[in-house]
Structures are given as structure tokens and as C-alpha cells.
Amino acid sequence: MKYRFLLFDADCTLLDFPADMTQAFHRMYAAQFAAQRPFQPELLDCYEACNNRAWARFERGECAKGQLYISRFVEFLAQTGLSGDPEAVNASYFEALAQTGTPYPGAVELLRELYGSFQLYMITNGNVVSQMPRLRHAGLAEYFQEVFVSEAVGVGKPDKRYFDYVADHIPGFRAAEALVIGDSPSSDVQGAINAGLDSLWYDPPGLNHTRPQRFTYRAETYGGILEILRNV
Ligand SMILES: [Mg+2]
Fold it and tell me: How much distance in Å is there from the Cα of 81 to the middle of ligand 1?
């Protein structure tokens, strides 16, 4: 077998982030803003846009993780005219997010199938407060030898320094035997390129990512991931 170390992304690869985010946003909104204005779907759209822009700034190295979290709510408050303290709103959102954890159908079965044949590690840019509880709620945590949350590392994907940290903390790690598996061209696939690792771009229908320029493998389904891993 070519690979021994599988480095899995979490959100939009194994965890249904849109479902969890929507649930957490609703809960946060009820606690923070419902008294000011009843919920409307446009508010969630607005938050998502602010959040995506903040993540893009972070992935381009233009801001630190802490700034990313706060700035998305600073922008959300400015655009909606709602009043609140961005830090408190963010804390409320994380608290709500930590109560979620929705695996995609087949995610647990995929890990169960791989467990034992491969060493599974999680590489995630999620936050320290909510990511571990979400993985536990989803029934995914037990399959991973270690979960590397970028916030705890101090730097995130796609930065090479994040992958250097991961490599340094996996016993017996060899780059030639490691495969990055994730949905995001900008953080997972680009991170693998930066770190000199092979990548399996998980590209399920509907995520609408721009095709990365370079990747080692591509799969649209969990079955496709298994097939590649069985044949290389
Ligand atoms: Mg992802």
C-alpha cells in the first residue's frame, strides 16, 4: 500500500458544515438578536457572505484566526444594522456550534472501513471550542489518532508551517506515505502542494468549487475514495 497516513479534512468532507452552521446560527440569533428583529432568511445569507469573505482573507494570510472570527460579525452587524458586541456574538455562535455535529451519510462507515488499514489523522481549520465536540457528536472522533486544530497549532491550512507541525507530531511520519483528503482547493489541495504531499480532492456534486490546477486524485463519493485507496 502506497499510503499509511491519511490526513482528513473535517468540514464539507466528513462533517456537514452547512447543516451545523445553519443550526448554530439560528440558536445564536434567538439568543442575541430575536428581541431586536425577528429572524429572516436573508440574515443567514448575509452572515454566510461575511463569513466566506473573512475565511478568504484568513486563507490569503491577511488576518489571524481571532480576527477572522470577530471581523465576520463586525461586518454582519454593520450590514444588518443590528446592534451587539461582535465578541459576545461570536462566543454565542461557537457555544451553539459546539452542540452540533452532523456527519454526512456514510462518513462513519468510511472511517470504519479505513480504520486498521491506515493511520487516520484529522487536519482542520475549525476552532478549538467547537471542533472536538462536533466530531464526538458525529461519532467520528474515535477513529482519529489525533486531531490537529489549526487554532491550537497557531497557523492553519494551506500554510506549509501547519503541515510541518502535523508531520512533526505524527510518529514515524513519512511524506511519501501521506495523503491529504479534503474538499477545499484553497486549503486542502493547495496545502498539500505547499507541503509537498499527495492530495485526494474530494469533490462531491453540489459544492461548486473551482477545479484546482493540480491534485493527485479526485473522488466524487466516499466509495470513490475507498476505491482509490484500495488500488494505489
Ligand atoms: Mg473542508
Answer: 31
pTM of the model: 0.92
Q: Is 103 helix (H, G, I), strand (E, B) or coil?
A: strand
Is 198 a residue of the active site? no
> Same CATH topology for 5-16+101-231 and 18-97?
no
Cα atoms in the 13 Å half-sphere on the side-chain side of 167 = 17
So what CATH class is 18-97?
A: mainly alpha
Ligand 1 centre to CA of 122 (Å) is: 11
Distance CA 9, CA 30 (A): 30
Where are the extended beta strands (E) located within 21-175? 119-124, 146-149
10 alpha carbon to ligand 1 midpoint, in Å?
6
Domain ranges of the chain: 5-16+101-231, 18-97
Q: What is the CATH number of domain 5-16+101-231?
A: 3.40.50.1000
CB-CB contact of 140 with 103 (8 Å): yes
pLDDT tens per residue, range 191-231: 999 999 999 999 999 887 789 999 999 999 999 999 999 99
Phi-psi map region of 178: left, alpha, beta (phi>0 left; psi -120 to 50 alpha): beta
